[in-house]
Amino acid sequence: MRTPTVLISGASIAGPALAWWLNGYGWRTTVVERFAELREDGQNIDIRGAGREVARRMGIEDAVRAASTGETGTEFVDSTGTPLARFAAGTSDSGGATAELEILRGQLSRIIVERTRDRTEYVFGNRIVSLDEHEHEGEGEGEDGVTVTFADGAIRTFDIVVIAEGLRSRTRSLVFPRVDAVRELGFYIAYLTVARTDDDTDLWRWHSAGRGRSITLRPDNLGTVRATLAFLSDVRGLDELDREGQTTVLRRTFADVGWAAPRVLAALDDAPLYFDAVGQARMPSWSSGRVALLGDTAYCASPISGMSTSLALTGAYVLAGELATRPHRTAFARYEEVMRPYVDRAQKLPPGAPRIANPRSRTGLAAMNTVLRIAGTPAAARLGGLASRFFTPPADAIDLPDYPPVLAPSP
Known about the structure:
Elements: E1 5-9, H1 14-24, E2 28-33, E3 44-46, H2 49-58, H3 61-66, E4 73-77, E5 83-88, E6 102-104, H4 105-114, E7 120-124, E8 128-134, E9 145-150, E10 155-158, E11 160-163, H5 170-175, E12 182-195, E13 203-210, E14 213-219, E15 224-232, H6 243-253, H7 261-266, E16 273-281, E17 287-288, E18 291-293, H8 296-299, H9 308-325, H10 328-347, H11 362-375, H12 378-383, H13 386-391
Parallel strand pairs: 1-2, 1-11, 2-7, 4-13, 11-18
Antiparallel strand pairs: 3-6, 4-5, 8-9, 9-10, 12-15, 12-16, 13-14, 14-15, 17-18
Helix pairs in contact: 1-9, 2-9, 9-10
């Protein structure tokens, strides 16, 4: 029997996770990544609920824990750095603004890639430029599949292609050229890595500065600090500016903000910077013919949701399990049937988000700080309620199907 083949575009988390599962089901897997090497940078992410259960089934939970950022909780501060409220890290699979398992995106990617390299072909510094699907009705008329042309001119054919890139995937538009996939949230986030100082702690510290702006600092396990500058804006396209334009926007937007803003702005010239327009992927379908979408390309819920990594891991598990047990068309339909309710829950952000955590008016900022002070009291913590409602995403809102056991690669 011929070994089925799959091309996966994207080597972040969802793509390598899909390769891991399909390897175990006997598929020949190839992952193409447009960057020249595996990116080991990135900000803090968490693994919750069903995503954490998938990590257990992959045998990587202990490795993730060993690479933890060490974040111990979340603290909201005012413009002087004085704490307003503090919330301890979660102690369950799903709870807490800080999850029990926190890791840098690049390190989670590396953990999964290392466990797939022996059975997956990785092609870095390349990308898909065209897809030509061919289906034959009768025997002897040629093999079914997708012929892929790459940027370097190579042409190869695969049984299945899975696009596991990002929210603004260019490859997705080759398959769904007339679909406006991105729902913009009117919110920008700049991600930076800055030097750690003696004043830094192991808490995720968050300052809402009014006028729709916030700044955060988060610990990592590399001796540095991951910072964000976030702001509401109705102006589109700021993420398409060059670095000089982006830093100019950030300096003007945060010029009068206190606490850590001067320190983060001072690092803009030299620190690694990623500037993102926050949005969600809203696709009417996650497949077409022999091509499927996975992870953020299919159903990005945005960083605000706290669900992107769990969706990526869970989606990879379900898609692989369905492909291992059904013909591709039935498998794709079943994948969507299982995942769509979970995705719908994930994309329902907390009421008012992202504006509620980034109030524009002084009155709104004062009200938010008052709510935080109340929610952070011991009495409120005993009662649960408000903090749990806002800080616990629906990461366990799915019953994971059981699929045939895999032949797992060696750790």
